[in-house]
UniProtKB/TrEMBL annotation:
Protein name as catalogued: Small ribosomal subunit protein uS15c
GO MF term (any one): structural constituent of ribosome
Keyword Nuclease on entry: no
CDD domains noted in UniProt: Ribosomal_S15p_S13e
Gene Ontology biological-process annotations: translation
This protein's UniProt keywords: Chloroplast, Plastid, Ribonucleoprotein, Ribosomal protein
Compartment(s) of residence: Plastid, Chloroplast
Subunit structure: Part of the 30S ribosomal subunit.
SUPFAM superfamilies, per the entry: S15/NS1 RNA-binding domain (SSF47060)
Family membership: Belongs to the universal ribosomal protein uS15 family.
């Protein structure tokens, strides 16, 4: 869903070009937390997850966009590091976050 269309003109009276800004994947659950503490591990994982979902949908259309693939791998590594940190420090918060974001499937051992 497209929310806004912006029109920018080049300096000097050149041609105008348009770009569209898409709605982000913001969840209702985390909108209150965004205002409270944007530096928390949960919020960082949440924002990385939104960026990952956007890049994944972009790469479904543009399979040969290698710079976006590289950026996606970097974000995945950062999110993985934060999740491993959270699982070591506070297992309860980790499990709540995983279930809220629906990131990983539960392992039955």
């Amino acid at each position: 869903m497209i929310s806004k269309i912006h029109i920018k003109k080049k300096r000097g009276g050149g041609k105008a070009f348009r770009f569209m800004k898409k709605n982000s994947f913001i969840s209702v659950i985390f909108q209150e937390k965004k205002e409270e503490n944007s530096g928390s591990v949960e919020f960082q994982v949440f924002s990385f997850t939104n960026r990952i979902r956007r890049l994944t949908s972009h790469l479904e259309l543009h399979r040969k966009d290698y710079s976006s693939q590289r950026g996606l791998r970097k974000i995945l590594e950062k999110r993985q590091g934060l999740l491993s940190y959270l699982s070591k420090k506070n297992r309860v918060r980790y499990k709540e976050l995983i279930s809220q974001l629906n990131i990983r499937e539960s392992k039955n051992r």
